[in-house]
Amino acid sequence: MLNKLFYSLVAIVIGLSCITTYANIPTVPATQTATTTPTGNNTSLVFVQTATSGSIEPIKNHPGYYYLLLINTNPYVAYFTQRPLRTRGLIPVNQFMKAWQLGSNNLKINNPNGIIIAAKINGEDNTEETNLLVTISNPAYLLSRNIMRYVVKPLYSQPLFSSTVSLRGVTLVFGS
Questions:
Q1: Are 13 and 50 spatial neighbours (Cβ–Cβ below 8 Å)?
Q2: Which of 46, 71, 86, 133 keeps 20 to 30 A from 18, CA to CA?
């Protein structure tokens, strides 16, 4: 199952890397320390954020919108680009939060598409390989509790879930 999940993730990441282009996203090249963040050029980026657990919860009075909570998130968001640059690296979550709204064509204005992948959904192995395609917006990071929250909306007009769903081994992949 993990092999299938891995290959699904690779295929999705490659697809997401072709979404659109954004300007001025601060990045941390792999050869630099995470404390410096030079400004990047017009580059199509793919971001990967992981967490040990999480949940998806319908937002009351906002049909079709959900909170995605990532609990025990990695303190860094990984990123990479494809050809011709093939850049990769890590950016601290707090700097990533600032980068969300930098530039004239930023992620706040043009919410990215992404995929939510979880090894377990409501305690059950994700043997169906359920991957949730969503639009991602409104990030919020609670450093003291190591929780990241996004508002997500399914890319298609189908509801994700009718009640709160718990997730384990969560990976969020989205393109810029």
A1: no
A2: 71
- Does residue 115 surpass a pLDDT of 90? yes
Question: Pairing state of beta strands 113-121 and 147-154?
Answer: unpaired
The residues that bridge with 150 in the sheet, in sequence order, are 68
Q: pTM for this structure?
A: 0.74
Distance CA 77, CA 161 (A): 27
Query: How many Å apart are CA 94 and CA 34, to the nearest integer?
Result: 11
Residue 43: predicted pLDDT: 65
Question: What number is the average pLDDT over the span 50-67?
Answer: 94
118, β-bridge pairs:
170
Do 88 and 31 form a contact (C-beta atoms < 8 A)? no
Tell me the backbone φ, ψ of residue 59, rounded to 5 degrees. -90, 120
The number of beta carbons lying within 10 Å of the beta carbon of residue 106 is 17
State the Cα–Cα distance between residues 79 and 98, nearest whole angstrom: 15
Nearest to 27 by CA among 70, 83, 76: 76
Q: What are phi and psi of 164, to 5 degrees?
A: -65, 135
Question: DSSP label at 105?
Answer: T
Structure token digits, residue 118: 């979880």
How far does CA 4 lie from the centroid of its chain?
Answer: 20
